[in-house]
């Protein structure tokens, strides 16, 4: 998720293009949304989820959501925008929970005899300031916020999955655990195991045509060294990009790889 542009604003144009292609002679049979995300802002997840459902209702279009590598936490919240939800057998799905984290650095200031001066208007404005000790009651207030966000998340899952959920051990569902795609299917967190291509061709036939609505693949680190030819998406289809695209995409490709590895490390993989 981009730090420079809020996720909702970033995906809005692609959602409109998917649901409202702007051509009278063409209407999609369905919209398939492929998700790889370890999570993010609860508010942005909610906004995108609501926007997908709004466009689906407005156009009468069925939505299928698919998890690739990871659809956890906010990523799973997005999956719940689908009328039907799928993942690969080895995808990581779930993590229905809320987290916040920080550091306690007040001892560092004490060690180096640094005096920090903070001025506020509002009793709780400096809540959980990392440069001072935790005040009495702060943990409880933060926990109240997290619990309320957690309840909102659970409500979305319950309203989406309904009686499909295996509630024999309901506390485990809301514990923040992640599951593989196969495990998630058994728990009712997804409908079944499948890929976007296999599911859509099964539903709409082998001649199903997929129209991509999203960011085109960027050139990666290997492209800068000529390991593979970069691609760009034009009006006539896929074509080779320029060496300039490879060079400018190399840094972003490296950052994407770092982000991906960090995401996997988060779940001990």
From TrEMBL:
Alphabetically ordered keywords of this record: Hydrolase, Protease, Serine protease
Family to which the UniProt record says this protein belongs: Belongs to the peptidase S49 family.
Protein's name according to its UniProt entry: G5045 protein
InterPro entries assigned to the protein according to its UniProt record, in alphabetical order: ClpP/crotonase-like_dom_sf, Peptidase_S49, S49_SppA_C
TM regions (residue ranges): none
Segments forming domain Peptidase S49: 57-202
Gene3D superfamilies xref list: 2-enoyl-CoA Hydratase, Chain A, domain 1, 6.20.330.10
Organism of provenance: Coccomyxa viridis
Gene: g5045
């Amino acid at each position: 998720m981009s730090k420079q542009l809020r996720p909702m604003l970033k995906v809005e144009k692609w959602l409109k293009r998917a649901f409202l292609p702007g051509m009278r002679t063409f209407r999609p049979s369905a919209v398939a949304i492929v998700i790889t995300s370890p999570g993010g802002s609860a508010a942005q997840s909610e906004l995108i989820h609501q926007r997908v459902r709004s466009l689906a209702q407005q156009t009468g279009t069925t939505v299928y959501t698919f998890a690739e590598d990871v659809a956890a936490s906010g990523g799973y919240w997005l999956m719940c925008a689908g009328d039907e939800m799928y993942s690969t057998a080895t995808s990581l799905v779930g993590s229905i929970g809320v987290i916040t984290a920080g550091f306690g650095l007040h001892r560092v200031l004490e060690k180096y005899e640094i005096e920090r001066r903070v001025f506020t208007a509002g009793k709780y404005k400096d809540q959980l300031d990392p440069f001072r000790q935790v005040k009495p009651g702060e943990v409880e207030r933060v926990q109240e916020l997290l619990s309320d966000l957690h309840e909102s998340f659970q409500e979305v899952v319950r309203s989406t999955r309904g009686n499909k959920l295996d509630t024999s051990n309901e506390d485990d569902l809301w514990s923040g655990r992640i599951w593989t795609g196969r495990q998630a299917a058994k728990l009712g967190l997804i409908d079944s195991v499948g890929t976007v291509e296999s599911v859509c061709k099964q539903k709409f036939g082998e001649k199903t045509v997929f129209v991509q609505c999203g960011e085109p693949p960027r050139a990666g680190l290997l492209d800068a060294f000529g390991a593979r030819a970069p691609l760009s998406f034009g009006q006539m289809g896929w074509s080779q990009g320029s060496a300039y695209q490879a060079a400018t995409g190399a840094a972003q490709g490296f950052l994407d790889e770092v982000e991906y590895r960090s995401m996997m490390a988060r779940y001990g993989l």
